[in-house]
Amino acid sequence: MPVIKILPHPEYCPNGAEITAPAGTSICEALLDNKINIEHACDMSAACTTCHVVVREGFKSLGEMEETEEDLLDRAWGLEPNSRLSCQAFVAKQDLVIEIPRYTINHAKENH
């Protein structure tokens, strides 16, 4: 099963973490299943950017981005060339290293 290494984030994962997820699982689902409560204001329907992550390793193993995701990412805080919406990026067979950006464009935090 692929390993997802999460780099430290002061709120969601202060010490960083390593989790496993079966292929076909979205990064967002994998994080939430492992008690890393990343924001996902639109309930993973690809309608916001609150679940934005930067894929530091393994980016090319993720499926192609659809136009909707590309358009949404244009509005994400801290956008990088290897940014993805974690609800739309599905784990394949390769290990990943991800970073959760420090901020989102959300003014109020969602408590899911």
Describe the structure.
The protein is an alpha+beta fold. The chain has helices at 27-33, 67-73, and strands spanning 3-6, 17-20, 52-57, 83-85, 96-99. It has a single domain (3-99), classed as Beta-grasp domain (Ubiquitin-like (UB roll), Roll), CATH 3.10.20. Helix content is 12%, strand content 19%. It has a 5-stranded mixed beta sheet.
List keywords for this structure.
globular; alpha+beta; disordered C terminus; 2Fe-2S_ferredoxin-like_sf; 112 residues; Ubiquitin-like (UB roll); single chain; Adrenodoxin-like; 2 helices; iron
SSE arrangement:
Layout: E1 3-6, E2 17-20, H1 27-33, E3 52-57, H2 67-73, E4 83-85, E5 96-99
Parallel strand pairs: 1-5
Antiparallel strand pairs: 1-2, 3-4, 3-5
Helix/strand order: EEHEHEE
Number of folding domains?
A: 1
As a percent range, the share of helical residues equals 10-25%
The end-to-end span amounts to 27 Å
Compute the gyration radius: what is it?
13 Å
User: By CATH's scheme, which homologous superfamily applies?
Assistant: Beta-grasp domain
List low-confidence stretches.
107-112
- Architecture in CATH? Roll
Structural class: alpha+beta
**Within the CATH hierarchy, at the fold level, what is the topology?**
Ubiquitin-like (UB roll)
Count of DSSP strands: 5
